[in-house]
Design a protein that fits this description.
Helices cover 28% and strands 22% of the residues. With 281 residues, it is of the alpha+beta class. A 6-stranded mixed β-sheet has the order 1-4-3-2-10-5, with no helix packed on it. It is rod-shaped and about 200 Å long. The chain has helices at residues 2-67, 72-75, 261-270, and strands at residues 152-154, 167-172, 177-182, 185-191, 204-207, 210-219, 222-234, 237-241, 257-259, 276-280. Strand 6 (210-219) and strand 7 form a beta hairpin. The protein has 2 domains: 2-74; 152-280, L,D-transpeptidase catalytic domain-like. The protein contains 3 helices and 10 strands, in the order H-H-E-E-E-E-E-E-E-E-E-H-E. The model is unreliable at 72-87 and 126-150 (pLDDT under 50).
């Protein structure tokens, strides 16, 4: 009887001990899982913080390092003055996860020396008191012009010697001829070249107010030295010899009356100052 009670009592204790052990085993197992998850979360947090730190902090550190780094001239060993020593260069250690940027050398272009252009002295032509010719003839020949044959329709030696009347000159632009008169007696006739369009020779009656054995003539784009036997009758309009063409009988000038040199020489000696020049069509 006593053994049965002892067995029953022992069986009841085993049942109670099993009941008490089950909850303890579940708690242990749950605590282990919680610990493992905390470790995983902690590890992930540390890895994330490391990545964030490397991305955010390394550029700032690199910028601060470049800010406090010495100038490039000192890094290369160049001194800023006779007593200034070159500063040591600092090596930046790349942190994990940061990109490596290779420095790019920028070539320096050395300008070529520019040749200095020396100013060219341009001779200044000082105009004389002689009025300028109103026409622009053809350019001067490079060589000495050939002698121009006389263009007189009737050479003065074969014409009337005159009657001693008042001398005057008639210029017919339509016929391209110049007539030398003494009163009503015709003394000589010459072929001329008057002004071509649009620079027509002025018409009217004017006295010869100035005579020159040689005169310089110039205008826009041309300069004629030593124009022979020049006689001005109105401003820059004149009668003169011509050595740059022999196309007499055709309008060629820009206003003046062109004669061959022999004809101009004869007319120059024949007509005194004040001789009237009548120009018409």
């Amino acid at each position: 009887m006593a053994s049965d009670e002892f067995a029953a009592h022992r069986a009841s204790k085993d049942v109670q001990s099993r009941k008490r052990g089950q909850p303890k085993t579940a708690r242990v197992r749950r605590d282990r899982w919680l610990t493992a998850w905390l470790l995983v979360i902690t590890l992930l947090f540390c890895v994330g913080m490391g990545i964030i730190t490397s991305v955010a902090v390394f550029p700032v550190a690199a910028g601060m390092n470049s800010l406090f780094s010495p100038p490039s001239s000192q890094k290369e060993g160049l001194s800023a003055g006779p007593e200034t020593a070159a500063l040591p260069t600092e090596t930046v250690t790349r942190q994990p996860g940061s990109p490596t940027v290779a420095p790019t050398a920028t070539p320096t272009q050395t300008p070529w020396p520019t040749a200095t252009t020396r100013p060219t002295e341009t001779p200044t032509l000082t105009p004389s008191a002689t009025p300028t010719e109103a026409d622009t003839p053809t350019p001067l020949p490079t060589d000495t012009p050939e002698p121009v044959p006389p263009t007189a329709v009737l050479p003065p030696s074969q014409q009337s010697s005159g009657t001693g009347g008042v001398k005057w000159i008639e210029v017919d632009l339509s016929e391209q001829r110049l007539y030398a008169w003494e009163g009503k007696t015709l003394v000589a006739v010459f072929l001329i070249s008057s002004g071509a369009a649009p620079y027509h020779t002025i018409t009217g009656s004017y006295p010869i107010y100035e005579k020159h054995l040689k005169a310089n003539m110039w205008g826009p784009g041309y300069f004629l030295p030593d124009v022979p036997y020049t006689m001005y009758f109105y401003k820059g309009y004149g009668i003169h010899g011509t050595y740059w063409h022999n196309n007499f009988g055709t309008p060629m000038s820009h206003g003046c009356i062109n004669l061959s040199i022999p004809d101009a020489e004869w007319l120059y000696g024949w007509a005194p100052l004040g001789t009237s020049v009548k120009v018409h069509y």
